[in-house]
Each structure stands twice: as C-alpha cells, then as structure tokens.
Design brief:
The complex is a heterotetramer, with two copies of chain A (340 residues), one copy of chain B (507 residues) and one copy of chain C (294 residues). Chain A is mostly helical. Chain A contains 15 helices and four strands. A two-stranded antiparallel ribbon of chain A has the order 1-4. In chain A, strands 2-3 form a two-stranded antiparallel ribbon. In chain A, helix 1 packs parallel to helix 13, helix 3 packs across helix 11 and helix 9 packs across helix 11. In chain A, 59% of the residues are buried. Chain B folds into three domains: 233 residues, P-loop containing nucleotide triphosphate hydrolases (Rossmann fold, 3-Layer(aba) Sandwich); 161 residues, P-loop containing nucleotide triphosphate hydrolases (Rossmann fold), CATH 3.40.50; 74 residues, no CATH class. In chain B, helix 3 crosses helix 4, helix 6 crosses helix 7 and helix 11 packs parallel to helix 13. Chain B is globular, with a radius of gyration of 23 Å. In chain B, strand 13 and strand 14 form a beta hairpin. Chain B is built from 16 helices and 24 strands. In chain B, the strands form six sheets. Chain B has a six-stranded mixed β-sheet with strand order 6-9-10-3-11-12, sandwiched between helices. Chain B has 507 residues and is α/β, with parallel strands linked by helices. Chain C is of the alpha/beta class and 294 residues long. In chain C, the strands form three sheets. Chain C has a six-stranded parallel β-sheet, sandwiched between helices. Classes of the chains: A mainly alpha (340), B alpha/beta (507), C alpha/beta (294). Chains in contact: A-B, A-C, A-D, B-D, C-D. At the A-C interface, helix 2 and strand 1 of A face strand 2, helix 2, helix 3 and helix 5 of C. Bound molecules: adenosine-5'-triphosphate (ATP) (2 copies) and magnesium ion (2 copies). The site of one adenosine-5'-triphosphate has 16 residues of chain B, from helix 4 and helix 8.
Chain lengths: 340, 507, 294, 340
C-alpha cells in the first residue's frame, strides 16, 4: 500500500504538472508572443526607453488590479475603481493646492496629499465593503452606484473642467513619476512593492486563505469561524488602498484630474485580473497572473501605437481580438487533455 | 424468497469493469449484474469504488476497460444522465439538486411536462404532491431546496428518482441522512418498485438495512470484486468482515461511566433561537451527550445558535462557568467550542480545494507564524490527520470534491479536531462512513471523552446514540421533551419522547 | 532614414466634429506626403488623456519624431507630456486646446471657444426680445464647454432673455433628444434653444418635431459647422437658421504650417486663432464641404 | 402529529409569504416613490406627454435588459450589448442606404434593414455564446472583447463620425418610432411584446427552467441531461435578438448611428436586471423585475432633467445614490425578519 501510494504520487505529479504549469505560464506565453510581434513590427519596441515606458504605464492598472484580485477572489466585484481614482486625484490636488499657503510647496505638502489619498482610498473602499456586507446589496450595484457618485463628485469639484496641481508643487512632486532608482522609474518600484505585498498577503497569510475560502463557498467559510463580512470588507479596503497608491503615482504624471480621469480603468483592471487566470466567480486568485495581465493589456496598446498598418479606428477590434485569443490560448487545457 | 427457480435475465450487466482516474486505478475488473425486481446491494469500505462503479453503470463515467451490457447487448451508455432515457436512473451520493429552484422544478428537471409547448405547472405540482404524500414528506412542491433540511433534500432526491419510471434505479447511500422512520417509509417505496419489476441497486454502510432490503449483495474491497451472494446467506457481521478483510471486534467501545460530579462546561438556560423553543440543558466535562429526535426537531438549530452560526433570541449560555453571551464562531472556537456540520458539501468543505487548505481552515490562526502561514506545520498537520483519521486518498493533491464521501467525512472530522476543542459538537458523525471506520470513530469519541473533552453527538442513528452516549437528550419541534440516562437509554424510550407520546417536565 | 518624422496626435473621433477633423488630417497627410517624399506624418489617435500621454511617449521613444502636432484631449493633463516631447528636441504645434503653461508650443492653431458662445448669444439677442425664454443644452463637462457656456451667459446677461435651465447633452444626438424632450414637457413656453453643437441640435430638432413645437418662430442654434446643417442653412431652413463655425479643418492648417516650418525659409511660429464665424444663408456656400464626413 | 404539522405549515407559510412578496413588490415600490418625487418636483412629470416619453425611452434599455435577464439567469454576462446595438444600427443604415438604388425607399427596404438587424443580432449573440461555451473563455472576457470589436467596427464604418440614414427612407421608417397605436407609441408595444415573450419563455417553458438550473448549478443541469452549452449559447442568441429589436426601434428615432451610440447601455441593462431582483451570479431571474428596473433607471434620468435644484454636475451622484437606496430598500427582508 505504501509503495502504491508512492508510485501513485509521482505518477500524478507527472500527469498534473504540465497542465498546471500551462495555466500558470499561459499569460506569460501570451505576453512573450506579444513582445515578439512588437519587435517584428518595430525593433524600437525593445529599446530601453520603450520598455521603461511600458512598465511605468502598466503600474497604474497593475496596482489597481492587484487590489481587484482580492475583491474578485473573495467573490466580489468593484466597478468604482476608475472613478475612485479620479475622485482621489481631485481631492488630493485640492488639498495640496490649499496647503500651499500654510505649508509651502515642499515635500510636506506632497506628503500631506499622499496621506489624504491613502485615507480617502481606505474610506472609499470601506464604504463599498460596508454597503455590500452590512447593507446586503449586490457588489455590482453598490460599486456601480459609487462609480457614478465618485465620477460626478470630481466633475463637481472641478466645476466641469480640470483640477490642476499648483505649478510649484508639481516641481516637487514630478520626480515621483519621472525619476528613476537603479534604472527603474519609481512607479515601477511601487508596482513591484504592491505586487510582492499582494502576493504575500494572498498566498502566505491567513487573510489570503480566507479570501479564497469565501469566494469558494461562503457558507463553508462561515462555518469555519471566518468573519465573512469583515474579510470581504477588507478586500474592498485593500482595493481602495491600491487605488490610492495608483493615484499617488498618477497625479505627478499629468498633474491634473478631471471627469475623464480613469475612465474604464475598472474594466481594464478586471480584465487584467481575469486574463491572469483568476476566476471571476471567486475562489481562485493569482496575483502573478494579474501582473502579467496588466502587462499584456498595456503591451497591446503600446504595439498598436507602433504601426499605422491598421486604421486607427480598428484599434479596438485588434485589442478585443488579442484579449480573446490570449485568454483562449491560456485556457486551452483541452489540448493537453486530448494529447494525453 | 430467493428460491430462484429460474433467475430472470439481468437488465444491466457490468463485465470486467476497470477504471482509472488519470494514472490512479480505482476499480479492477469488477463485474456485477442487476435483475428485474431485485434489490442488489453494493457494500464496501470508504473509497472502495462503489460510487465510481455506480456512475459507470449509469453512464456518468466511462469505464477504462470492460463493458456494460444492457439487456444482454453491449452498450455505450449516453453521458450525463442521458441514460435516463434508457430507464437507468442514478441518485448521486452527493446531493444533486439546484438549490435556488423549487422541489417541483428539481423533480422534473430535464423532462418537464409540457402542453402546447408551455410548461404544465399544475400537472407537475400535482404529480409531485402525490409523490410527496406517498412518501410522507411534509413539504410543498413550491418550497425552495435551499430552505429544506438535508434529510428533506435527500427525500426529494428519492422522489425525483422514483418519479422517473426507471427500469434500473441506482441509489448511492440514499439512507445516509435519514432517520430510521424515514428509512422505513423509503423502504416501503422500494418494495413497491421491486414488485413492479424495477431492478434496484442500493449502496449503504448501514448493514442492517442491507440485510433487510437486499436480495443479493456484492462486496467490493479496494476496487476489487470480492463476492456476490444472496443476502440470506449473510449476516451483517459477515458483511462487515468481508468488506474490511478482517474480523471486527465490538463496534462500540466499552462505556466508561461518566463522572456525575465533573464540572459543568456548558450550561444552556432557556435558549430561544430560530426554530428553537426555550431549551435548557447542561454538559459536563468528559461527558458524551447524545441528541436524538426526528428530522427537523431542532437539534442542529440549537447548536448552530450556541456556536454563533445563527442569532440568539433569548436565554443565556454559560461556558466553563462564565457567561458567554452571543458569540461569533471564532470566539466559540477560541474558547474551545467547535461544531461539526452535518452538511459536509454545502457547509463543511471547500469542494474545489485540496485537502490541506480544507484541513487547516477552521484552526488557521494556530498556523500563523510571524504574520504568515507556517506551511510546514500545515503539511505536518495533514500527515497527522491522514494517519489519525485514516483518510484514504490515492492522490494527496486531489480536490476534496473528488474524494469518496466517507473520506470527505473523515477529513471534516479532522478539520474540526484541528483546533483541539474542549467541547465538540458532532452533527451526524458517521454519515456515510463504513463500519470499520465507524468503529474507529466511536473509539475516537470515547477516547476524547476519557481525556476530558466533552462531546455532543447529534445523530439520527439510534444504535449509535445508544451505543456511545452517557446521557441522551430527546428533542421534538424545537423543544426538549426528555433526558435519558443509564438503562433508560433505549430505542423504545427515545422514540416515545421523539414522537411526542411522552414528555417530561424539565426543571 | 533622413525623413522628417512628424507625429500627429488627437483624440479618437467619437462624434461628428472629431470625425471631420480626422478626415481633414488624413487628407492633409496624403497631400503633404505626396508633396514632400521626405516627410513622414504619423497619425495617432487616443481614447483618453491617459492614452494620449502614452501615445506621445511612444512617438518619441519609438518613432523619434522631429515635430509634433497635437490636439490635446484636455489641456491640463497633457501639458507635462507635451513638455517632455519638447525636451526631446521636437517642434511642437498645439491645436485647438491650449496647454496650461505658456511657451511650450512653437505654433498654436485654434478655434475660439468663448467667441463661439459670444457669437451665439449675440445672434439670440438680435432675434429675441425682452422676456423671451431659451433653454441651453451643454456638451460634456469640460473646459471647452465651460468656456463656451460662460461666454454665452455673460453676453446674454442683462438682455432680458430668460435662460430657463441648462443641462448637459454631451455633444450627443441621443442625449440632445432626451434632454430636449424633458425641457419640452417641463416648459410650456420656449422661444429658442442654444444647442452649442450641431449633433445636439439634430437631437433637439427631432424632439421639437415630435412634440409638434417646431412652429411659431422657434429656432435652434448649434455650432461647429456640420455639412448637413450648413446645407440646411443654404436651403433656407428656418428651424436652424444659422450656425457658428468651429472648423475641424484647423488640424490640416496646423499640419501645413508645421511642414512649412521645416520646408520653407520664412519664419513659421506664433498663434493662428480662427474666428467663430456666424454662418448665415449669405455666406454658407463657402463653408460647405460635401465630401467631408462632417 | 397531523394537527401539529398542519399548524406548522400555516405558520411557515405566513412567515414566508410577506418576505417573498416584498421582494417582488420592492422594485414596484421604488418606482412608485420615484414617481411621487417626480410629481412633487414638477406636476408636469405626470403629463401624458412625459409619461409617453418615459415609456418609449425605457423601451431600448428594457428590451435589451430582457435579453440580459436570460444571460444572467444562466450564470453568464454580456458586456457587448451597447456596442452591438451601435454596430447593428450602423450596418442597418449602410444596408438600407445601399438598397435605395435597387429597392427604392419604401417599406421593402426598411424590412430588409430590419431583417438584417435580426440576422446580425442572432449572429453576434451566437458568436458570444459559442466563444463562451465551445471556446471555454469567461463570458466577461469574451464580451469585453466583442464590446471593443463592435464599437471599433462602427467607428470604422462611420469613419469616426455619424452614419445617417437616407432621408427618404427615414420618412418611411419614422412612424416606427414616432407613431402610436391605441395611444401607445410603437416602441412601447414592441417592449410589451418582448417582455411578455420573455416572461413566458423564462417562466413557462422548459428552456427558462434550464436557464435557471444552469445558473443555479451547472453540474446538476448537466447531470439532468440538459445540453448546457446549447442552452447557454441560446441565452446569448436571445440577448442578440433583443439587441436587434431595440436597434430596430432606435434607428428611426434619429436615423443615425455613431461611435457614441449605445455607450454604457450594457451597464444600464445589467443594472436594470439586478435592480429588478435577478441574482448576478445566476440561478434566479425575474423578467417583471427587469422591466421595473429599466423603468426605474429611465425615471431617475427623467426626474433629474425636471429640476434644477441640484447642480448638473451632481446628476451622477444622485443617480448612484438612488440606485443604491432603491436596491437597499428592496433587499431589506431583515426588517420583516426582525418584526417577526
Ligand atoms: N473524479 C475523480 N478523480 C480522481 N479520483 C476520483 C474521482 N472520483 C473518485 N475518485 C477516487 O476513486 C476512489 C473511489 O471513490 P468512490 O467514490 O467510488 O468510493 P466509494 O466506495 O463510493 O466510497 P464512500 O463509501 O466513501 O462513498 C477514491 O479514492 C476517490 O478518491
Ligand atoms: N435560521 C432559521 N430560521 C428559521 N427556522 C429555522 C432556522 N434554522 C432552522 N430552522 C428550522 O428549525 C427546525 C429544526 O431544524 P434542524 O435542522 O435544527 O433540525 P434537526 O433536528 O437537526 O434535523 P435533521 O434531522 O435534519 O438534522 C426546522 O424546521 C428548520 O426549518
Ligand atoms: Mg461513495
Ligand atoms: Mg504616414
């Protein structure tokens, strides 16, 4: 019997590994293919400048998508992230501009702005979470509602126009987006940190396990002494925090916020999460995949800027096709299933 | 009964069936046939491959080798329940009902009665009502499955199967969640079907039932066919022995008298909760307290309220002498109070996850080291649990949903015990467990009690309650109708309290 | 490889005016590339400010452009990204929406938003009398919309004309139709509508006709110069009697001038502000481009 | 025993009924409250003209939402409906304009256009369905992809601008939107028909039951010999068909289609479905609720046009708040639970 078990074990390992690995490397493979296509279209694709741009750009969606991974893993959804980013950016700018008189245009003001952003992110996330759990309203409706609310608030604050950061503060704040450390721009470092923290949190802590359990079966989670409402609320808070981080590195890029800031980020973030292999219905989340998903999405946009072979109008078509094909390739365990 | 002057030809035959999941073999050249008008029981240990064989017989799995013969002809059964059109109906071991839909919708799912293209709801409701009345089930066709108790769900499964005019009715542990009363009602249905010439396959771990209802018995052990015999030639003990391959000693451990002066660990006073009238009782250290009663008598509801799973509407609870108002489940666990659910599929285990995350989920704070999970400790815990509870999985990384039913139950027990509770409430401890393992579990419970852990056993299996409990509380309709001790713990007494024929005023 | 590379970046057309602009840009590209074989124009459009900032980065890092013609999605957010392009040494031409920081662009070509509002209001004042009622349908809440609206309101101020209410119709026919329907239910007496944009105006007219309130001298003033509207003006349509020009061809002007900066010897720099001409039946002919999608 | 049981029975029935009813009348109540608010803001709200406008306007989202009810009940989601409507409208216009030369500007051309719309709707729906079921790609990703594809196709066809229907055909086609029958505009009749058919299909046919079963538990449905893939594909086809119907009554309104046609209709449709009480995760669908949900959404927009109490910029805030509150009120079975 013992021998049986041992041989069984190795046998299953051989059988399982490839399919498991394929699902894991699927997104990586898709990204690789995209990069090859990019290189063939224009060798400048792999120039250091372009790769840096690409990574930096992925940071926004990537950071938000890390948060979304938690929400989705625990069986929720958050449609409000794009608007939330716009609203946080708006309030940050108002606060920093307002603080110029008393605090000057130095680091202190910028830190104040960042602090407020974090507080707002946590607060906004908490509102989403509390309405979902305590209010027992579907996450879809709650976040659709707050999406409209945050978006219109930023329009209101900006009086329909654009809120712009004081020019001098911009000077202080600019390096956060544009400067590099060890060859990598700061946003990329933030992205890396958020990704690592997210990965540890999801895969190496009790909290992450709870998220997965809740997404997998809420009743079982409840019976397993998990405070379901609290964990779910926390996932939204994490999402809010991630949005705040993304906003903190976004504001110095364009120095402004308006009603059109962050439009459709929610869809991009969710798409990144799902391209990465997380299951939309919850119960299974992969931070690593999410990161790759965000990179894939950014790369698609980047590649389309590389060529004028296709009518600009068809960008959306290409984007849609690539997303579908990327996910299709990755999901095709059936191939292995057949050959086995 | 079984003089069989001329055995009728088998309706369905499995010939030399082997089955592997990937590289893991679970059945080795097993043969079995079912004749019209017979009840053919299939028994074996947990994980022996009974469910797998049943699924192959009804087309849900393809055999890796071997063949299925229907009316003597080699057939490839249509997949996914398509075999129903050939008259082969399977009641799955795992409940197979759409929770959000009503009883009527479930019973007729996939073969709705239509008139002029539209559903004839009235006809279907009437039909379901007839079946429900026949089987004595007190629910309405328009009730949602999610509102039913697990036993009621099982009865709905039976109604669903019975309503399908089967030639072959395959039932995988239909009685596991039923009380004896319900089982009797159910058996009357089986007799009726049998008379009308239906061939019935019956899987059960309750060997007395097998003895009662079966005409022939096939025994599987570790995926191997052991024997097929007329049930008249077998006693339950013989069956048990053939299943496990060794002589079984006493099923129940010797009863140690409880210390009646031991401290009270749990005192419940006039507890009111959803489905529970005011109830009061107390539990002592090292005591095994049985809770008996009919389906829906509120036993589960009492303990779900105590453990923080349901709101409490009144009364007080004392734990180890201290007031413990309404608690969260986590608080209850931290104070040493743990509840093992009877609904392992919906509330007990994450079916799409592997064994290890399931095992440690309940006691997860114990595995936290430096803010992270101690994966080594988790791994060790799994090794320990597999040994201690004899969880038989041929592949450790298998998702729990693919474990055999009994092994799921063992894993669930292991999961709850992982937090080292001082009071453990076990709801239906041996649901779907084979005799050999049952014995282990009973000894395990007795050992726990001997170590000073208090155990509450909620069970619908009367012998089990009688065999291991020091004291028995009987409930009816949300109220406690009697508390039995010593010699009073016998089937007669319990039944009288449970049915409301006798009632004692407590306190 | 010695080609002069000129990047042209503007928002993805999602409404008729922008489509017209896109058409003019493509025409100009063909014309200029045929004329100067050593000039390569690269047209990129982007769906939001974010994407436009990224597109600008890509134009520099991948295409290494020598000059940029940019119609910013919004002024504020694109100021820094354009500044970065400037730092790479490229010539900068800004179209339509000025950057929020002076001195970045070498050349500025624009329509005049406040002027559009003002001209519209002046026309209203000319046709309406004290106590008459108008409603206003605005665009998408943006700086452009604010400039137009504020100028309009400032001009109408004190004329005795009542602005009953103003709602956003998002430069969109459907929204124009629905908002106007509701205005009609709400206000029994409306004498004129300022729709600000020709797309909105089309929706407004449909709503007026549906409600049967398109008679008795009621009129609608749109804006931008859509060819169908101009055709209508030429034909003496009374419901939309005039239009206020906001020419989509400005991008072509900007591209011409930018190429000229490399190709001609004369100095090319400064500001070209195109007026917001009032198009009337008298001058409509000269603003009618039947081939343009706009 | 029998007596006991009987009394138990009535007791549970009494306890159950009100909560069920409340869930059913919840959306109706929310709509009623909105109407009262509308009336108080401006009595013109209940004028015949306004109510007719409101109903007609609801027709688009309502018809699409009926289709979405099927998709969501069966556990899927369709984000592509808005873009699909735009693309179908665009192609319809191109085809009708093209047919003028050969077929004239009469009814035949309009019917040709409508026929094509239906074929396109069915085809587009089938593509979504097949990619989801046969391709085994998450519905979210598939329809996010086709959303981008259809949207960019219509932009391409319209050259970024607007496709306009030939003026003479418009004359023939106009009545479909603007004329009435028995006092109700034709779009409302179409809406009523679609709603009734949808209701019958979902509640009175085996197909509807299969949708519910699949959404509730796909394995159970599969084991009941239901052809899960086919039923799921059919829900997308129905969705496509509904989009086609909506487009057929949309085109005669303004006789044009552009890249901004139908933007965000997908979110509105899904919101209508969920406000109406259908469960986003599938397994429980209510056509009646969906209709009310569509009416609620349209009424909110209508009411906001009826008042200038609130800054225009805050429209989104009001909309979001009302949606959340409406759903909250409707979900609050806890009230009844407490009082019991
Ligand atoms: N889909 C599957 N994939 C892999 N292994 C499986 C699958 N289904 C069952 N098994 C394995 O096959 C073996 C036999 O399981 P089966 O369910 O037939 O046992 P059983 O005799 O019904 O046991 P029980 O009495 O506990 O229900 C078990 O080891 C189980 O883990
Ligand atoms: N949360 C609740 N709200 C209202 N009624 C409830 C609730 N929980 C349980 N009940 C009702 O209380 C009664 C007792 O159910 P319970 O499951 O506790 O019985 P049981 O004795 O454990 O039955 P079984 O034999 O099925 O295990 C049932 O009629 C059930 O419907
Ligand atoms: Mg089994
Ligand atoms: Mg070119």
């Amino acid at each position: 019997m013992t021998m049986m078990t041992a041989s069984d074990d190795t046998a299953t390992k051989q059988a399982k590994r490839p399919s498991v690995d394929f699902k894991t490397i699927g997104p990586a493979l898709a990204l690789l293919i995209l990069c090859v296509i990019g290189f063939m279209l224009n060798p400048a694709f792999v120039s250091e400048g372009n790769l840096t741009n690409l990574l930096t750009r992925s940071a926004f969606i990537g950071i938000i998508a890390v948060g979304a991974t938690f929400v989705i893993t625990a069986g929720g959804i958050d449609l409000s992230v794009g608007s939330m980013a716009a609203a946080i950016a708006g309030v940050m700018i108002i606060i920093m501009n307002g603080a110029v008189e008393t605090m000057g245009t130095g680091l202190a003001t910028v830190l104040l702005g960042c602090g407020c952003a974090l507080v707002l992110g946590i607060g906004a996330g908490w509102i989403n979470g509390a309405l979902t759990t305590k209010g027992k309203i579907e996450a879809f409706i709650v976040t659709l509602g707050t999406m409209g609310i945050y978006r219109s608030l930023v329009t209101y604050f900006a009086d329909g126009g654009t809120l712009s950061l004081n020019f001098d503060i911009r000077g202080t704040y600019r390096p956060v987006y544009y400067d590099s450390f060890l060859g990598l721009p700061y946003p990329v470092w933030v992205f890396i940190c958020v990704a690592i923290c997210g990965w540890l949190l999801l895969n190496r802590t009790a909290f992450g396990r709870y998220c997965t359990a809740i997404g997998s079966n809420e009743a079982v989670a409840k019976y397993s002494a998990i405070n379901v409402d609290r964990v779910k609320t926390l996932t939204y808070v994490i999402q809010g925090l991630c949005v705040a981080f993304a906003t903190i590195i976004y504001v110095p890029r364009l120095g402004s916020a308006s009603a059109s800031t962050g439009v459709l980020w929610e869809l991009e973030a969710i798409a990144a999460v799902i391209i990465g292999g997380t299951v939309l219905k919850g119960g299974y989340g992969r931070i690593g995949g999410t990161i790759l998903g965000a990179l894939i999405l950014t790369t698609i946009g980047n590649i389309l800027n590389f060529t004028d072979l296709i009518s600009n109008y068809l960008n959306g078509t290409m984007q849609g096709l690539i997303i579908i094909v990327a996910v299709f390739l990755q999901r095709s365990d059936w191939k292995l299933g057949k050959s086995k | 009964m079984n003089v069989e002057p001329a055995t009728p030809a088998a309706i369905i035959e499995a010939v030399n069936i082997s089955k592997s999941f990937g590289p893991v073999p679970v059945l080795f050249s097993v043969s079995m046939d079912v004749r019209p008008g017979e009840v053919h029981a299939l028994i074996g240990e947990n994980g022996a491959g009974k469910s797998t064989l049943m699924k192959i017989l009804s087309g849900f799995h393809d055999p890796t080798s071997g063949q299925i013969r229907l009316d003597g002809e080699k057939t490839a059964l249509p997949a996914n329940g398509g075999a129903e059109s050939l008259g082969i109906v399977l009641i799955h071991q795992e409940l197979n009902l759409a929770e959000q839909m009503t009883v009527e919708e479930n019973v007729f799912l996939g073969r709705e009665i239509r008139s002029k293209g539209f559903l004839d709801k009235a006809a279907m409701r009437a039909a379901v009502q007839t079946y429900l009345d026949e089987i004595g089930l007190d629910i309405s066709p328009t009730d949602r499955i999610s509102d039913l108790t697990i036993a009621q769900k099982q009865m709905v499964e039976i109604v669903k199967a019975v309503s399908r005019n089967a030639r072959i009715l395959i039932m995988d542990e239909p009685t596991a969640v039923l009380t004896e009363e319900e089982t009797d009602v159910f058996f009357r249905q089986v007799e009726k079907l049998k008379k009308s010439g239906v061939g019935i396959v019956f899987v059960s771990h309750k060997l007395n039932e097998v003895k009662t209802i079966a005409d022939r018995v096939t025994i599987l052990r570790d995926g191997q066919w052991i024997d097929t015999r007329a049930s008249n030639d077998l006693t339950p003990d013989m069956m048990a022995q053939m299943m496990v391959g060794r002589e079984l000693s006493d099923l129940y451990p010797p009863m140690h008298e409880a210390d009646i002066d031991a401290e009270l660990v749990l005192e419940v006073d006039n507890l009111v909760a959803p489905g529970v009238g005011p109830v009061s009782f107390a539990l002592r250290k090292g005591e095994i307290l049985g809770f008996s009663g009919l389906i829906g008598s509120g036993r589960t509801a009492v303990f779900e309220a105590i453990c923080g799973l349901n709101p409490i509407e009144g009364g007080s609870i004392k734990l180890f002498g201290r007031d413990a108002g309404p608690m969260t489940v986590a608080a209850a666990r931290d104070q040493g109070l743990a509840y093992l659910t009877k609904d392992r599929k919906e509330k007990g285990l994450l079916l799409d996850k592997q064994m290890q995350p399931n095992l440690t989920l309940f006691a997860l704070p114990k595995f936290v080291k430096n803010f992270g999970l101690d994966r080594k400790a988790e791994e060790d815990a799994l090794n320990r649990a597999i040994r201690r509870f004899d969880v038989r999985a041929k592949d450790r990384n298998i998702t729990v949903g693919k474990l055999s039913g009994g092994n799921q139950q063992k894993l669930l027990l292991a999961k709850i015990m992982e937090c080292d509770p001082k009071i453990v409430i076990i709801d239906e401890p041996t649901r779907g467990i084979d005799v050999g393992t049952k014995q282990q579990i009973y000894h395990f419970i007795a050992a726990l009690a001997a170590e000073g852990v208090s155990v509450v056993v909620i069970s619908s299996e009367m012998p089990e309650i009688i065999g291991i409990c020091h004291r028995v509380v009987v409930m009816r309709e949300g109220h406690i109708t009697g508390v039995l001790t010593g010699d009073h713990i016998n089937e007669n007494e319990i039944m009288r309290y449970a049915a409301g024929l006798k009632r004692e005023d407590l306190q | 490889q010695d080609k002069i590379k000129i990047g042209v970046s503007y928002p993805t057309p999602t409404h008729a005016w922008a489509a017209g602009m896109n058409w003019h840009a493509e025409q100009a590209e063909k014309r200029l590339e045929a004329l100067y074989p050593d000039v390569d124009l690269i047209l990129v459009n982007s769906s939001d400010p974010e994407a436009q900032a990224s597109a600008l980065e890509d134009l520099v890092s991948v295409h290494q452009i020598d000059a940029l013609v940019v119609l910013p999605f919004e002024s504020e957010p694109l100021t820094d990204p354009v500044l970065n392009v400037k730092k790479s040494g490229a010539w900068i031409t800004v179209v339509d929406r000025g950057l929020s920081q002076p001195g970045i662009e070498d050349l500025y070509v624009a329509g005049n938003n406040p002027e559009l509002g003002r001209v519209s209001a002046q026309y209203m004042k000319g046709r309406l009398k004290d106590g008459d009622n108008i409603v206003v349908l605005r665009g998408i809440p943006t700086v452009i919309d604010n400039e137009r609206f504020d100028a309009f309101m400032a001009e109408i101020e004190g004329s005795g004309i009542n602005v009953l209410d103003h709602k956003h119709a998002n430069w969109n026919r459907d929204d124009g139709f629905e908002v106007m329907q509701d205005f009609l239910s709400r206000f029994p007496d409306i004498d004129a509508v300022w729709a600000q944009d020709d797309d909105i105006a089309i929706g407004v007219v449909a709503a007026l006709k549906q409600a049967g309130r398109d008679g008795d001298g009621m009129f609608v003033v749109g804006g931008a110069g859509m060819k169908e509207i101009i055709k209508g003006i030429m034909d003496g349509e009374t419901l939309i009697p005039v239009d206020v020009l906001y020419p989509p061809a400005m991008i072509a002007t900007a591209m011409d001038q930018t190429v000229a900066a490399f190709k001609s010897n004369g100095p090319v720099a400064g500001r070209y502000i195109l007026g917001a001409t009032l198009i009337t039946p008298e001058n409509a002919e000269s603003y009618y481009f039947p081939d343009s999608p706009f």
